[in-house]
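Q: Structure tokens for this one, please.
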Amino acid sequence: MNVFKKLFDMEKGFYKRVLILALPIAAQSLITIGVNMLDNIMVSRIGETELSAVALANQFINIYHILCMGLGMGASVLVSRYWGMRDKEPEKAMTALRKSICIMVRLTVSLAAIFALLTFFIPNDIMQMFVKEGEELDVIRNGITYLEYSVITFFFLGLSLTCTIVLRSVGQVRMPLYVSMGAFFVNLGANYALIFGHFGLPKMGIAGAALGTLIARVYETSIICGYLFFVDKKIGFRLKHLFMKTGDLIGEYIRISIPVLISDGILAAGNTAVAMVIGRLGQAFVAANSVTATTQMMSSVMIQGVCQAGAIVTGQTLGEGQKERAQRQGYGFLGFGLALGLVSAAFIMIVREPVIKSFNLTEGTAVMARQLMNAICLIIVFQATNSIMTKGVLRGGGDTKMLMLADNVFLWVLAIPLGIVAGFVLHLSPFGIYICLKSDQITKAIWCVIRLHSGKWIKRIKVGREYLNEEKKAEA
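A: Here is the predicted structure, written as tokens:
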């Protein structure tokens, strides 16, 4: 009874506050999934070669996307904490907040420039990284075309993504959602016109797909950054702040934010390694996994929303100096993760058969897909719990170095070796192989409970070169 009360008996307004933040973020994630599916469907109308080319080219763009997410979420830890501090020392806190955004924007633009230059000068080498030996030259040629039209996209993608995360960190979640909804329709119209040559425009094929995405990103960035730099009054960040001195905050930014960037980057490499293991288990396993992956993504959008809400709420609560309240809220988010995991598992079980039947699968592959769905139903309970803890509460508490270690140790030392042994040595069933490949989700969930209970995840964060006066007095 005491455990139940600790997990689910929260302060008045807690769940409302979380849902107000999480629902728009979840809806925006759902729109993003829809945009990606829309692009694939339209490109597939041209041909399988073009679809393969876009998928491979996007492997490189996705690396940049993941790194930008790391930059944005790292900055979010600082922004939400300083936002919570604004009532104590408003001038210091808001100056530090704007410096954090300034550093984030500079790093984003620098990273975009690197990826844009690589894409412009060595598109062939990039495509060669992702194709199998002996792949058709048409795939590489089409992929190069897609990349060449995507050079400028990096700048708009990075800025819209990171600035959206900043706005969310101070509670502004609706405006980015509305912009994403508009971008969806802009992308739909631009793709329809440019890929197939409608409304008097030339039929550009794969180049039209890249250009349509660029147009949607320009639309998205113009509104998001235009609002942040010229309209928003909560943060008060303006173009002149891009030239402010940030030397006194660089060390703190690196200490808190860079581990997030490194962690997300190495995790991306780990996920690629998992995909490589799956790819070598046979075509049927790959097909079955691709069917289940979309279902899992659809079932996880609310989990992603609560993850970001957890980081924002925790950061703001700690910024207000309420450590005990943050600890209680941490248990509330733990209960939230357990409940969402069970709901997601139930959702997968309900839609499993309709999803499998909607694909043209052989009987053997369909049986395999059912086993993978069953495995996901088990894993997602642990995944939801640890994701909301690691990407939300513990990250919001500033525990980014420990999270960087935990994320990657559990993946590289446990899950990937176990998956290899299960698939190639023990020859387990698809259910057993998938459980082994995702075993890091189980162990990480257990570790999160221990870490949360210890209270060591709550880290102090500096404002400039010093901590807040109130915090220093408390320490004394």
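A few notes: Residues 48-85 form the longest helix (38 residues). Confidence is low (pLDDT under 50) at residues 469-476.
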